[in-house]
């Protein structure tokens, strides 16, 4: 990928204007994310910081090592799932390292550019994977992960005394996600139906009649083709269930760093809620919303009396740091293994996102 950008040293006035325009559009989202992070941290750290420091000073840090080891297993399982989605087009090693680099980029860079980084890296291997094919697999991953999150919520609700309304909302969202996955599987097996639906929508919304949309749809369906096979779909569900179970196990192990008698319900609740924090605008790494989600998860499982209790806040900070160390370490190894620099792939990813004119690379849609 480095060679493809090496001849673009001259920056024109139009390039600068385009860059300035894009930055003006991004500033509101950046400022909102910063505000959300600050508000969340102020809420969590409003009590005496000395209590939090005492909790961290007395933590059992030996639990970090097995937590990272189990988390690495979870990353490997997720890479196997992604490889299944790509119909085995890349090797397990490439899948593992590319996925880790994308998580690393999401953890240290704004605007969740890691998803596009993943597509860029998959497009540079031999044989390359189409960009939109990689991006469409990420859509399926999100649907499967949403199912897993609501399964965790359901298991947690089964052992916690909460209102029926919360359970019904989770069940409805879970059913909607199942319907979405089934629809993708049906369209992957019957692409003519998907094109027929697009044609029908085009009669209602004329802009949808553009031929390029059918090309994009073909690429999108190419990414979800594995869902058309019951055997492959079962594999995807299996890898998803196992990888999320491993995440819960890693969280449960780390709970012993602060708590003498943690519970599986607390581990499931905090993992489920923390997964929602990813969608909340925040600074890179989701600093603030992540901690808030974790402490509310611990409080909902009655492991602490209130979300702002010192043990909950101390654990949330420790968990976040442990996750960042895991992702950064695995990401750096991935960059070395793929023989690419973070700056190189992020520049390529930004170009991909900004190039709306490229017919086979619509950077913004599935991300």
Characterize this entry briefly.
With 367 residues, this protein is an all-alpha fold. The chain has helices at 13-44, 49-57, 64-85, 92-108, 114-123, 131-159, 164-189, 191-204, 211-223, 230-255, 264-277, 289-300, 310-338, 342-354.
Kindly describe this structure.
With 367 residues, this protein is mainly α. The chain is built from 14 helices and no strands. The chain has a domain at 13-128 and 232-354. Helix 4 (92-108) packs antiparallel against helix 5 (114-123). The longest helix is centred in the first third of the chain and has 32 residues, at 13-44. The chain is globular and about 60 Å long.
Topology overview:
Layout (H helix, E strand, L loop, with lengths): L12 H32 L4 H9 L6 H22 L6 H17 L5 H10 L7 H29 L4 H26 L1 H14 L6 H13 L6 H26 L8 H14 L11 H12 L9 H29 L3 H13 L13
| Number of DSSP E strands | 0
Multimeric state of these chains? Answer: single chain
Q: Provide the residue-averaged pLDDT.
A: 78
Globally, the shape reads globular
- CA-based gyration radius: 22 Å
Summarize the biggest pleated sheet. Answer: none
State the share of residues found in helices, binned by percent: over 70%
Low-pLDDT regions: 1-23, 356-367
Q: Strand fraction band?
A: under 5%
Order of helix and strand elements from N to C terminus: HHHHHHHHHHHHHH
Task: Give the number of helices.
Answer: 14
Alpha-carbon distance between the two ends: 21 Å
The chain-level structural class is: mainly alpha
